[in-house]
Amino acid sequence: MIVGAWDALIQSAAMEAGIDPSILAAVVAIESKGNPRATRYEPAYQRRYVEPNSALMALPWGARRIATSYGLGQMMYPTALEVGLPSTTAPEALFDPALNLRLSARYLAKCLRRSSGNVEDAISRYNSGQPLSKAPAYTRGEHLPRFRAAWARARGQVLSSLVSFTPSTVGLPVTILTGVGLVFMVGILRRILGDERNP
User: Fold this and answer.
1) 150: part of which helix (H) or strand (E)?
2) Per CATH, domain 4-159 is 3.40.462.10
3) Cα–Cα distance between 154 and 87 in angstroms, integer?
4) Keywords in UniProt for this one (predicted)?
5) Residue extents of the structural domains in the chain
6) Do residues 29 and 2 lie in contact, with contact meaning Cβ atoms separated by under 8 Å?
7) Can you give the pTM of this predicted structure?
8) Which residues pair with 176 in a beta bridge?
9) DSSP at 164
10) pLDDT of the residue at 172
11) Which residues contact 148 (CB under 8 A, 6 or more apart)?
12) What's the count of helices (H) and strands (E) in the chain, helices before strands?
């Protein structure tokens, strides 16, 4: 995929969340360029959402650390709390690639559900951290074209792990799944069959 070093973790996190790994790979590519130590402080977010929230302000981390996005998926601390990070965990724990990708995939799955599966709407939600109607113009104007390009590259790499051939004895197209394609399809089949051993 796009962010080579993180392929296995991206696949695992995406499978656990029940989403297409190419979407998560594209998010990582545009949010952090694959840098697990990437940060972005959001002062407007701090003023609008963190400081007025007494529960967040009661945490020992400080408003600035809470209003910073961290790691591969550029996960905001309040968003991480929303998808399962314990409030006793410091924001800097989001630098851990496996944890960050797992939480990013969960939040992306939530955005996809809220967007009825519309990937671009889900990406706008993910990037803005807000209801779609309140997503800033930047999300639609600059962010989505970058996402589309990254997603096309990621899908191309996922599709390249599928090898198609037509056996002459049967004359029917058959697809052999390898690598990413196999991992993704096994995850989908496990969800369909109700195997929830890894919630």
Assistant:
1) helix 144-159
2) no
3) 33
4) Membrane, Transmembrane, Transmembrane helix
5) 4-159
6) yes
7) 0.75
8) 163
9) E
10) 36
11) 120
12) 11, 5
